[in-house]
Design brief:
Strand order of the largest sheet: 4-3-2-11-12-13
Number of domains: 1
Number of strands: 13
Distance between the termini: 27 Å
CATH topology: Purple Acid Phosphatase, chain A, domain 2
CATH architecture: 4-Layer Sandwich
CATH superfamily: Metallo-dependent phosphatases
Radius of gyration: 18 Å
Helix content: 25-40%
CATH class: Alpha Beta
């Protein structure tokens, strides 16, 4: 099956979420939460992630995690990941409790597509602060894709991880997982880069992005993906392919905000105040643009 057909299949089977001018979404992906060891790429940015999610929780956002939230190729047990990063999972559970959390599976957490896995192993966790087992994501459904559909028109935003454009990480994901778990992870600890990873191989990254752009153009459909770890925010009329980046950039995390009918690309990082104190701050990498401008461009095409 071609990349285009895999993306179209995900689109046709996507979960649909209505939105309007009052909606607030933060879209992030590729957290790769791990076991807290030296190879846990998320550990360096876990405080940034918690600070960012606290802001979004307090300001009424819905959090959409666009795949590869947990590193389940290098690690077998999600219970260990939940225990190590219990503060992040506690906060995400607060979103879920208020129906403000949606998750999509990516290639590194593709096992979550099995309802038995996600609904049993993500059902609850032990909270140290409360010294009790508390609900995590009971009954959660983790689809391959989500469509944000505007309530008052046929305008849609297609959300998926993007690994469908990468044959090695979709069709042959079991082989890739085997290589990562038993070959590349041990080598990574010595400084060798994993050539199967789109985020660490620029040639593969460019090919994948071209396939995602091509699908968005041919289908005249706004698409937001992750997977490559490289943020993309096109000008109106240029492309309909967006990418939210990742949460494992050195020194920062990135995401896409949809707020009151606008879309923007933001970065969270440790910043320095004029008095030389450090703080976690948010800044726009791409300032808000009205979604209606992109939707009009799809109509013209």
């Amino acid at each position: 099956m071609s990349a285009s057909k895999r993306l179209s299949r995900a689109y046709n089977n996507a979960m649909v979420i209505p939105f309007d001018e009052t909606s607030r979404f933060i879209i992030m992906s590729d957290c790769h939460r791990g076991d807290g060891s030296w190879g846990d790429d998320f550990s360096n940015n876990q405080n940034l992630f918690f600070a960012a999610l606290t802001y979004y929780y307090e300001n009424g956002f819905t959090y959409i995690e666009l795949g590869d939230g947990d590193e389940l190729w290098e690690n077998r047990n999600i219970e260990t990941i939940i225990d190590v990063h219990s503060d992040a999972f506690w906060l995400m559970s607060k979103f879920y409790e208020e129906c403000r959390l949606f998750m999509i599976y990516g290639n590194h957490d593709i096992v979550k597509r099995d309802p038995k896995y996600s609904q049993t192993r993500c059902h609850s966790f032990f909270c140290d602060s409360e010294n009790a087992e508390i609900p995590l994501f009971p009954g959660i459904e983790i689809p391959e894709a989500i469509i944000l559909k505007y309530r008052y028109s046929d305008d849609k935003i297609f959300l998926t991880h993007g690994h469908q454009a990468d044959c090695l990480n979709s069709t042959f994901w079991r082989l890739s997982r085997f290589l990562v778990r038993y070959l590349w992870r041990p080598l990574q600890l010595t400084g060798v880069r994993d050539p199967t990873s789109a985020s660490k191989n620029n040639k593969r990254k460019n090919k994948i992005e071209k396939r995602l752009m091509h699908w968005a153009k041919v289908n005249n459909q706004m698409l937001i993906a992750g997977h490559t770890h490289r943020s993309v925010f096109p000008e109106v009329g240029e492309s309909l392919y967006f990418n939210d980046g990742s949460c494992v950039h050195p020194r920062c995390i990135t995401g896409i905000e949809i707020v009151n009918g606008t879309i923007s690309l933001v970065k969270w990082a440790v910043m320095t105040a004029p008095n030389r104190t450090l703080y976690v701050g948010r800044e726009f990498l791409e300032y808000p643009v009205r979604l209606s401008e992109y939707f009009r461009s799809t109509t013209k095409n």
